[in-house]
Amino acid sequence: MYRLLIADDEALEREGLELMIRHIFPDGFEFLHAENGRKAIQLAEEHRPDIIFMDIKMPGIQGLEAVRQILTKLPSAQIVMITAHDYFSYAKEGLLLGVRDYLLKPARRDEVADVLKQLMAVIQEEKRRRNEQLELQEKLAHLLPLAENELTMMLMLEHVQDLELEQVAGLLELQWAKGYAMVLSFPRHSSSAWEEFQQGKREIYEAVKQFARAGLGCLSGPLIGHQLALFIPLPPGRTGYSQRVSSMDWGERLRSLMEQRFGLPVSIGIGSIREGWDGLSRSYREAVRVCADHHDSFSVHHYDDIIQSSGQTAVSLDEEKRLLDALLQRSKQEAVERFGILYAAFEQGGGRPLPEVRGEVTGLLLFLARGVHSAAGAEILASLHTAEDPISLRLSAESWLERLIHNLEQEQEHNRSHVHQRALLYISQKYKEDISMEQTAEYVNLSPHYFSKLFRQHAGETFIDYVTRLRINEAKRLITGDQLNLKEICYEVGYKDPNYFSRVFKKAAGMTPSEFRQQHEKQGPC
Question: What pTM was computed for the model?
């Protein structure tokens, strides 16, 4: 049922119009009556009618002014102007305001029916579109948390060069120039505290997410193991020092929230302010590095404070990149040696707690996994968190180095095999033409020198020998077919000179093409 407001200063006009519509659409409308413009505005704001029939000439507030005010508050209202011939110019002005149609007094039954049918169709279409929009918003509301998790996982696993990251950030309407990461680490060594954490981790996650998002406008990562990451934008106009103080304050608030609400100690690490998505990913690594989880260090740590005031030195990025280069070159020995140098720097002579060293190693391996395009980041996080002593931590890390190198070797072998198969397919299609090794190498995007070595390694013969064997085998098949003469066969299998073809054939088959045909004819049926 639709709600229809009839605004006219003549009661008979209103009653007559209502009666007409009731006959045309029984039980189709709920009616409201207004005798002037002021009343029409009040009823429209109070009852929100779907359709309004508005007389232009009324005492007090005129019809057009009432239309202006109603459409300001109720833009979806479908308004029809009712006018006498003398005021038709005003009706045209109403069309410019957003009035859907007009009727001339006295309105005929068929005209009223047509107008109402059109307006009901418009209302139904708008309702359909609105429902579709709401359904889309509902779906998007369910997708956005997944997109947020996906984005934070990309930052944590350092997949910051992927095109998908920019797409997900666009879906979330994020445009961050600068920001930093904060990592909350919950207790693992106390069995009772760990059990409490496991039982309430869903509630803990929601509490942290709501509290941090309300005050920081941040991204919340998924709760992985015993750690939860937040990625926080730098507010405009905030300096680095004031933001450090503010971030420490928020860290303390989160720590107090966990202790007061859940009775859980928590260690919080905060990374440096950095630019871009790549910078946020590095800030996360820094937060992980300073986020100790043993029972003596349940407090808030900032990476900049640790580096500047504790006498520690940050590991050079050049050293990390040299280790990555060793991995990319599949040099296991060099990779292990360079990792040993970095591990010694992390331990600082054995004086650092295991959780801090684990944070350093975790950050390093995530950087390496990203550098070799490995998707093992989540596995790395899980496996290193189970290491309970320095020896097992180092062995686990070295095992991951070997695994990353092995995966690179497998990928390289797969790529080589794929290139070889593409080359064989190309040769099988082109060997009857004037094909060359250089053409084939270009087809598979390799240098001729490297392609020659790769082809011989996989095929067990040179490119020329392989093509020659294909051509001679095809020539034998055609000769035994006895449908083409030897000259035609020479051209058919890719040779331009019959004499040269005869020499190549004799070298491969031990006899000339004519001798081969004669031998075949002797062996045939009499």
Answer: 0.45
And the tokens for 248?
């420490």
Which residues, including other chains, have CB under 8 Å from residue 237's CB and lie 6 or more apart? none
Residue 273: strand, helix, or coil: coil
For 266, phi then psi, to 5°, come to -150, 140
pLDDT in tens, 147-191: 777 777 777 776 655 556 666 766 666 777 788 999 998 876 566
Q: How many CB atoms lie within 10 A of CB 484?
A: 14
CA-to-CA separations, 469 to 104, 478, 502, in angstroms, rounded: 94, 14, 14
Of 402, 367, 365, 410, nearest to 384 by C-alpha is 365
Please state, in angstroms and rounded to a whole number, the distance separating the CA atoms of residues 310 and 509.
Answer: 81
Detail the DSSP E strand segments found in 41-177.
51-55, 78-83, 101-104
Packed helices 513-523 and 498-509: angle between N→C axes, nearest 10 degrees: 60
Question: How far is residue 346 from each of residues 133, 232, 243, 365, 373, measured CA to CA in Å?
Answer: 54, 27, 27, 13, 25
The Cα–Cα gap between 225 and 234 comes to 27
Q: Which of 370, 282, 359, 290 is nearest to 323 (CA)?
A: 370
